[in-house]
């Protein structure tokens, strides 16, 4: 159950009208919207593959753009935290080291997920027709679904705790919500891509 009083106190430390905070929210929400819209457009039209000469080149280009956007998001997130007050109740050594541990676990999930999927598997290669032979079930996918997303969320959570930042905690919640929505759209669509692949194999 959510502690309403605690949430109210947390919001009391955050100026949601601050320009930096608003920019951070926009950057967080924009990223998954951008890559889902572009990837679905590519899947429908193959326009990027034609422009870049191959699906792999197009996928690598989109991946590079996503990486840049994620760097911008992280910068906006950090600047929003810096511009708002710390929460004294969180500004302790144990909180810092807890946040550090959470960020380390998140980083482990992100890196191991990338290594398991490869570049094209990580950056929506399925939408470019670059399909994997079988579903990845090794770590970290053996522990949880969508480890890249939740690992990234954990990194932001840990970063917020390390800075004792109520604004950071609130922005982390925005990250989690954005990824949850992205999963709801990406999951069924990706499953349909692989269903069509299996259907094509059976019809041969």
From TrEMBL:
Cited Pfam families: PEMT (PF04191)
EC number: 2.1.1.17, 2.1.1.71
PROSITE patterns: SAM_PEMT_PEM2
The protein's enzyme class: transferase
A cellular component annotation (GO) from this entry: endoplasmic reticulum membrane
Annotated localization: Endoplasmic reticulum membrane
Domain of life, per lineage: Eukaryota
Protein's GO biological process: methylation; phosphatidylcholine biosynthetic process
Gene3D superfamilies hit by this protein: 1.20.120.1630
InterPro entries given in the database record: PEMT/MFAP (IPR024960), Phopholipid_MeTrfase (IPR007318)
Record's protein name: Phosphatidylethanolamine N-methyltransferase
Biological source species: Ptilonorhynchus violaceus
Upper taxonomic lineage: Eukaryota, Metazoa, Chordata, Craniata, Vertebrata
